[in-house]
Amino acid sequence: MKNGFGFKGRQLKDLQALLNQFAKTPERLTLRVGIGAEPGSEPDYPDGTPIALVARANEFGTARTNAEGDSVQHIPPRPFMRQTIEANEGKWGNDLKSNFATRPDKAQSILEDLGDAMAKDIKNTIDAFKHPGNALSTIARKGFDNPLIGASKGGSQGGTMRDSITSWVGETDES
User: Fold this and answer.
1) Which of 34, 28, 17 is closest to 126 using CA atoms?
2) Which alpha helices (DSSP H) does 129-172 contain, by range?
3) Residue 2: what pLDDT?
4) 125 falls within a domain
């Protein structure tokens, strides 16, 4: 079993049992959480830049080539997704387990609730993220130092990337 939540031992066995119960539900459901979670949804900034591209650059950082031809860091990694998963994976697994135990016939509703909680947790991480901070030149341009929140017109805090974090639950025909 592929285990992205870091469960081991008894927790992993409990999760496997829960997923086996989900597999017996009539729907083949998928939960997606992130930027443009709904299939076919790929939101852009007003200038046409894909929001997911900016999120990836922030999550993993970017490099550029300097005048000497050396690769140097341009945007430092700001792993908001990985930090959110690390901080909340146990809670999400426990919520899934307890909700399915009390509402076994409500798989879609359970996944929708979980997706909403996951999206909220990611947004909270984006809002709280402070280190590494913005470069002084970026702070001067934006007018504030919140590394994962961009500036709107007029210099106010925008939050377009944060606001594009959504969740989606739907049926799939994957087996």
Assistant:
1) 34
2) 136-142, 160-163
3) 45
4) yes
